[in-house]
Design goal:
The complex is a heterodimer of chains A (128) and B (240). Chain A is mainly α and 128 residues long. Helix content of chain A is 70%, strand content 0%. Chain A is built from 3 helices and no strands. The longest helix of chain A has 35 residues. Chain B is an alpha/beta fold. Chain B has a domain of 115 residues: Rossmann fold (3-Layer(aba) Sandwich). Chain B contains 13 helices and 6 strands. In chain B, the strands form 2 sheets. Chain B has a 4-stranded parallel sheet, with helices on both faces. In chain B, strands 3-4 form a two-stranded antiparallel ribbon. Chain B starts with a helix and ends with a helix.
């Protein structure tokens, strides 16, 4: 029986074992309270700066848009909301019409007393 | 949710011609499905299928994302102030950091090992594209998820309100199939199990399947274990 030494297989196995233990350690680390706390503390300066930058960028952008006589973000958003509202109302109307069309036809009401708006009273026993 | 979903379901009913229907939700979709089924129990929801539904946030130790989103460790308002909405990349990063070596290195090592097999490469590419193809979460939705769900567990405590309507799980009467992935690290089983006791459904089933948060739903193992079981449950309760 020839001796076959699978070097790649051995290396792969060693790699997988190493990664497995590395993964376990990493999970313990990223699930820990100190990690969450450190993440929070390290992200704060960046988030504050990003917030300030975003606000100043939006302010500058709205000034530029105003100078170019173009609609601002708020105006586009307002228009979008109104269009969405119109779309929903149209959808409701469509559904109501469809429901009315598919509803069984009601028997026609008596056509007496036309023109004067008087209502027809059903005859009681002995009347007439 | 209370504006779009009723209209979408009305359209489903009009197109299908059926007055009752089944709703299936996975992960956050399962939260939305549960809320809707509890708020509108008379809309025709016959069957409700929840896959890895993060509904109970009481066990802060078992839920790894709870530590990340705790008030002492996460300033949700500052995050939203910086970004406007919650970027999909950050949501993806947060979920991946629960298993960093597997997600950032192991996934690519597996791809390297299988480069000779086009089927595996295609499957890896499809999965990777889907995972990376997130969209930002609307700021108010994200804030509500973090504060009212992760921190305050309002749904289970019975204190959650949507547009002034109190969400009472006892009003949920649809037949319920609650599917839990045994190795889910994003939504551990403790987040999904307890809803079965809270809902008002007469017919409720808790199903445990092997796999993780995504593996229980897609891939060969899901096709062999999860979906045939769901199909069996549903066919027994389907009127059509």
């Amino acid at each position: 029986m020839p001796f076959a030494f699978d070097l790649m297989g051995k290396l792969r196995k060693a790699r997988d074992q190493g990664m497995e233990s590395w993964a376990k350690t990493a999970i313990q680390l990223t699930s820990s309270e100190p990690y969450a706390r450190a993440n929070y503390l390290l992200s704060q300066p960046w988030l504050i700066a990003a917030g300030i930058f975003r606000k100043s960028r939006e302010k500058a952008m709205s000034q530029v848009l105003a100078q170019l006589n173009m609609p601002s973000r708020e105006e586009v958003l307002g228009l979008s909301q109104r269009l969405t509202h119109i779309e929903m109302v149209l959808d409701d109307l469509g559904a109501a019409i469809e429901a009315a069309r598919s509803a069984p036809a009601e028997p026609e009401a008596p056509r007496a007393a036309q023109g004067n708006g008087a209502r027809v009273r059903p005859l009681a026993a002995g009347e007439g | 949710m209370l504006e779009y979903l009723p209209r979408a379901l009305r359209k489903v009913k009009a197109v299908s011609g059926s007055s009752s229907f089944t709703v299936l939700g996975w992960c956050i979709g399962a939260i939305l499905s549960t809320l809707y089924a509890a708020l509108r129990p008379d809309d025709g929801i016959e069957n409700l299928i929840l896959l890895t539904a993060p509904l109970d946030f009481a066990n802060k130790e078992a839920i790894k994302l709870s530590r990340m989103t705790a008030e002492r460790n996460f300033d949700v308002d500052r995050m939203l102030d910086a970004h406007g909405n919650m970027p999909a990349e950050l949501l993806d990063y947060g979920a991946k950091m629960l298993k960093p070596v597997e997600n950032f290195i192991g996934s690519y090592v597996r791809l390297f090992d299988n480069l000779h097999d086009p089927k595996v490469v295609d499957s890896w590419h499809a999965m990777n594209t889907w995972v990376s193809d997130g969209i930002p979460m609307a700021a108010r939705t994200y804030r509500q998820l973090v504060v009212e769900f992760y921190r305050e567990n309002r749904l289970m405590n019975g204190t959650l309100s949507l547009r002034g309507e109190k969400v009472d799980l006892g009003r949920l009467r649809a037949n319920l199939l609650d599917v839990i992935a045994e190795d889910d690290h994003i939504t551990p089983p403790c987040q999904s199990e307890t809803v079965v006791e809270k809902v008002g459904s007469a017919d409720k089933t808790l199903l445990r399947v092997p796999g993780g948060h995504i593996g229980m739903m897609v891939g060969g193992a899901a096709a062999r274990s999860t979906w045939p079981k769901i199909e069996g449950w549903l066919s027994a309760r389907s009127k059509g």
